[in-house]
């Protein structure tokens, strides 16, 4: 006798990445997950079905390749998001591995009929507390190189990218938690609304 496994709900939105993707910094919901930017984004876009958020605290691009990417591809959605790389840049940076992993992640997700969204990296080095000037300069260079590389992938692969590196609103301290790394609850709400607008524009352009 043959049987089928349980039918998984059809997701409209799947997100992979680190604690930014997870929603850390926002309030927790009844199920224990964070009411991060994806929650606000889904609400703005009118998504009522289940959202699959695989983001996890401390995840690097290698973690996403090793642990999250296959799960995301096994549960494909017409709208898929990636927020990852900050932990590589701050604590575990290997430029070649970093670029290779980003290309693997984005090329794996990009497919006809699917919209893949992301953000570039905001000016985290400027906000990290207690950082010596020399270390801050090193991190600024890493973040600049990362944004330059992602900036080349975006048009090549047709990604939708929210420009957090240059958005004036990201300079407002209310956007960020005291650790300088994670958006605050207000930051997640603003980012979610901005990403929804960007995705909506991209969808309209395809019609």
From TrEMBL:
Signal peptide: none annotated. Residues 15-190 form the SGNH hydrolase-type esterase domain. Pfam families: Lipase_GDSL_2. It comes from the Bacteria. PANTHER family: GDSL-LIKE LIPASE/ACYLHYDROLASE, PUTATIVE (AFU_ORTHOLOGUE AFUA_2G00820)-RELATED (PTHR43784), GDSL-LIKE LIPASE_ACYLHYDROLASE, PUTATIVE (AFU_ORTHOLOGUE AFUA_2G00820)-RELATED (PTHR43784:SF2). This is Lysophospholipase L1-like esterase. It comes from Amycolatopsis echigonensis.
């Amino acid at each position: 006798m043959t049987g089928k496994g349980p039918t998984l709900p059809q997701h409209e939105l799947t997100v992979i990445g680190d604690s930014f993707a997870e929603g850390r910094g926002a309030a927790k919901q009844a199920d224990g997950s964070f009411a991060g930017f994806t929650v606000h984004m889904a609400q703005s876009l009118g998504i009522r079905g289940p959202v699959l958020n695989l983001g996890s605290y401390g995840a690097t691009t290698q973690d996403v390749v090793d642990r999250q990417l296959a799960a995301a591809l096994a549960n494909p959605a017409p709208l898929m998001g990636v927020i990852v790389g900050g932990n590589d840049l701050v604590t575990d940076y290997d430029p070649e591995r970093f670029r290779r992993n980003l290309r693997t992640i984005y090329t794996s997700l990009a497919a006809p009929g699917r919209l893949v969204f992301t953000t570039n990296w905001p000016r985290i080095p400027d906000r990290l507390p207690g950082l010596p000037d020399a270390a801050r300069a090193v991190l600024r260079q890493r973040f600049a190189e990362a944004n330059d590389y992602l900036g080349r992938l975006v048009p090549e692969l047709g990604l939708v990218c929210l420009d957090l590196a240059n958005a004036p609103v990201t300079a407002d301290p209310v956007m960020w938690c005291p650790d300088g790394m994670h958006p605050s609850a207000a930051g997640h709400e603003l980012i979610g609304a901005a990403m929804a607008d960007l995705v909506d524009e991209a969808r309209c352009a395809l019609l």
